[in-house]
Amino acid sequence: MVQHGVDYIDQISGDIKEDLLKRLRRIEGQVRGLQRMIEEERSCQEVVYQAAAVKAAVVQVAMTILSNQLATCLAQEMAKGGNPEAAVKRFTEVFKKFY
């Protein structure tokens, strides 16, 4: 569903969506593990390594969504005979918010 230049998550193909959901469930487990590590007073090094793994996993999810959004925006612009630069501009706005 697209309204007023907004891209919705339902534009992501079923396979990609399932992969994202699997990744997010894995991240959820990693975060619970991180909480346990802190409760168990594990070493700072172990906690930081686990936090880095969580961060990397979240970045992968975001990059998958962002790359899909760029492809979708470009396809929509081209289909309506529009300007691809407009799609890139919308993508860039979202990308800047992530980074």
TrEMBL record:
UniProt-listed GO biological process terms: negative regulation of DNA-templated transcription
GO MF terms here are: DNA binding; metal ion binding
Q: Name one Pfam family in it.
A: Trns_repr_metal
Please name the PANTHER family in this protein's record: COPPER-SENSING TRANSCRIPTIONAL REPRESSOR RICR, TRANSCRIPTIONAL REPRESSOR FRMR-RELATED
**Name under which the protein is recorded:** Metal-sensitive transcriptional regulator
